[in-house]
Amino acid sequence: MKITRVEAVYLRLPEVKWQCDSGQDALIVRVETDEGITGIGEVDSSPLAVKGAIDGPFSHTCTAGLGQIVIGEDPFETEKIWHKMYRANIYAGRSGIGIHAMSGIDMALWDIKGKALGLPVWKLLGGGFHNRIRCYASSLFGPTPYATGELAKRFLGHGFTAVKFGWDPMGREEKTDIALVREARRGLGDDADLLIDAGLVWDAKTALQRAIAFSEHRIFWLEEPLRPDDYEGYRKLAESAPVRIAAGEEESSRQTFLQLMDKGRIDVVQVDLTRCGGFTEAMKIAALAWDRGLPVANHGFTTYINVTAALHWLNAVPNALICEFVAEEETNLRESITRQKLRAKDGYLDIPQDPGLGIDLDEDAVERYRIA
User: Is 124-359 CATH 2.60.120.20?
Assistant: First the structure.
């Protein structure tokens, strides 16, 4: 079997709001083979920058479009192809956009392998730790603390046992920050877990003050309170905070994950398969976390392709903690572009059992939202 074509497809809603919601556009990767098997992947990044990294022409041996680099390769040779892409784009591909683009291709290759062998990706990765994985309902904060509490009640009514709120209006002022968390806890009651995503808004001392204040409301973790490169700040925070500190979604290479774990001393390692280098690299990151006694969780605020990939990965590692599952109810691409619609049951997601990723594009929806 040989790779014959790589296609990067940019999808976008007609109207995009100014908010931290990755479900408003999407970058989908298709990899085709000479045996008629097509794999799909996804990249959560700057979509057109990623498309350029995939579609771009050859410039020289350290900078080349990734799509043409993999043409003619055997899709089963994922480790070899990963390193070929990395080396052929090493000027731009050591982190950031380059690794993001590689992630979508790598994901599609594992989808091809699973389809060719009739096995789910998690089985190819050697997994089988779970039949289902606990998930948390992931949402932006409501516009006010009271509205956040009402959202929490709604998610609890849908059967979730854990809920995360994040980003704006967190970080505007101490009074509002604490009220948001207090009202979220009110809405959830005493038994459900409450996760808070600060959204990169504080310095280390302010984050520690908030962590102490939030601990009164028994939060499960405090996510990304600092800018991603502040490893020293993360160390100070993690060593002093009374709650778990989670981070990692901004990272796009094994090396920076090591910085976050060894210098930042975080408690939960968050990995987004659409950014970190795909399955091939995510397995290595999980192993490094396991060696340090750290649990891993996915990050995924985009489509069901991302979530499905995360379920395969979480089922293939021994240190999986919990799965992010977006519970935003507004119209977005998430509910449109795949034939399968994921649904949590009593706060859990079932592990996919179909070959490959086990999720397929709705081609009509793809054409409806396609921009490039």
Answer: no
206 CB burial (10 A radius; 0-12, 13-18, 19+): middle
Residue 199 Ramachandran class (φ > 0 left, ψ -120 to 50 alpha, else beta): left
Contact status, residue 180 vs residue 172, Cβ threshold 8 Å = no
For the segment 4-47, what is each residue's pLDDT rounded down to a tens digit?
Answer: 999 999 999 988 878 666 678 999 999 999 999 999 999 999 99
Residue-wise pLDDT for 294-338, tens only, equals 999 999 989 999 999 999 999 999 999 999 999 876 667 888 999
How many Å apart are CA 283 and CA 305, to the nearest integer?
18
Helices 78-88 & 278-291, crossing angle to 10 degrees?
A: 100
* 123 vs 120: CA distance, rounded Å: 6
The CATH homologous superfamily for domain 3-120+364-369 is Enolase-like, N-terminal domain (3.30.390.10)
Q: Classify each residue of 10-46 as buried b or exposed e, where b means 16 or more C-beta atoms within 10 Å of its C-beta.
A: bbbbeeeeeeebbbbbbbbbbbbbeeebbbbbbbbbe
pTM for the whole structure: 0.96
C-alpha–C-alpha distance, residues 237 and 231, integer Å: 10
Residue 296: other Cβ atoms inside 10 A: 25
The one-character DSSP state at 74 is -
d(C-alpha 30, C-alpha 17), whole Å: 27
Strand order from edge to edge, sheet including 3-12: 3-12, 25-33, 38-43
Which string of DSSP letters, residue by residue, matches 256-273?
A: HHHIIIIIS--SEEEE-T
Location of structure tokens 């509002």: 176
Q: DSSP assignment of 281-319, as one string?
A: HHHHHHHHHHHTT--EEE---S-HHHHHHHHHHHTTSTT
The partner residues of 163 in beta bridges, in order of sequence, read 137, 194
Sketch the domain layout of the chain as residue ranges: 3-120+364-369, 124-359
